[in-house]
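ok so for the tutorial part 2 we go from a plain amino acid sequence to predicted structure tokens. step 1 is just haveing the sequence, like this:
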Amino acid sequence: MTRPLRPRATAVVVRDDRVLLVSDGAGIFMLPGGGIEPGERPEAAAARELHEETGLTATRTEYLFSWDSGTNRHLLFLVEADGDVEIGSEISDFRWWDGRECLPAYPHVAVVLERLS
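step 2 — the prediction. this is what the tokens look like for a chain of 117 residues:
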């Protein structure tokens, strides 16, 4: 029996042609996001997760597409956000990534970013 995919809201934040990536302490980078709570709209979950992880406040969200990995259904949103990234309890590092710096990232990051271009 196949397990249902876990819905995950993912924020794609772009500033100055760089994409925000975060790390949760394992030294591997990912796009900010997380689980969608029962009854929560996916775009609200993307904004909430972005704020919880980075301190950024979403000012606009636009649905991009969904992508299924082995365990998650990633619902991706292009997010415009105000503020500066703060490292707190949920992330240990972040990068405004230009695509050229070699960063260890989860496999879905490359797939998602390739699909965006």
